[in-house]
Amino acid sequence: MQRTRSYSAAKARGQTRSRASGTPPAAPPAPGASRARRSASQAGGESGAAARQPSAKPRPKQSSPRAQEAGPGQAPPELPRLPLPTSASPAASLPDLGDQRERWETFQKRQRLTFEGAAKLLLDTFEYQGLVKHTGGCHCGAVRFEVWASADLHIFDCNCSICKKKQNRHFIVPASRFKLLKGAESITTYTFNTHKAQHTFCKRCGVQSFYTPRSNPGGFGIAPHCLDEGTVRSVVIEEFNGTDWEKAMKEHKTIKNMSKE
To answer: Which H/E stretch holds residue 160?
Structure first.
């Protein structure tokens, strides 16, 4: 009702103005024309907004399968943090242990050993059965080594010209049982006469803690007085007549075998 009155009033005012100006009055808009204009205006606004947008839309980044599983608008679930594949993992690079696999892994975890550490313990126990691991070095600490040998040491006291002067008492081991832990750059070597014996000593403090004897070029002579305390149970000293070295070597029954496996 209110719309009809306002329309009639507007029509009357329009007719009055037309008479005054001499222009014929405009035809009244058809019913629903204003609604059509509004719809067209809205449509035009939407099409204009669409025209202002770039025609080529940027390609969306491909999401990971985890993000797709999470759904739009949701953060992908956090992945569990897996340990890096190192030798510390019990299952890393394990051979086929058969029924002993679970037992082996339990042993590693209990002892807190890597696979390499567990294998080393096994080898040390059975390969060097009856032996102990001695450690030692020079005076200043630049040279350090470890050696597998008996807790009961058989020491040679040689009286050759150089051994007498430097009091070179030593026990002999195969090269495979000796390991230089550090100090290769700190070692220098003295040789003389046949140059078969390699008298190695520390450049800094001058101490010879081990050397390669002429009698056993495939092994090492270890100075017992350069070992750390706690692993030597007993010592037996045998005198060796190094002043007549060739004759002493011929008469000795076991010295050559001491550097063999």
So the answer is: none
